[in-house]
Amino acid sequence: MFDELTVECRAGYKADESPLRFTLDRRRKEVIEIADRWYDPEADYFKVKADDGCLYLLRRDLCTGEWSLRYVRVREPGPLVVMGPGGTDGTPH
Question: Which of 34, 56, 64, 72 has the fewest beta carbons under 10 Å from its own?
Answer without folding.
Answer: 64
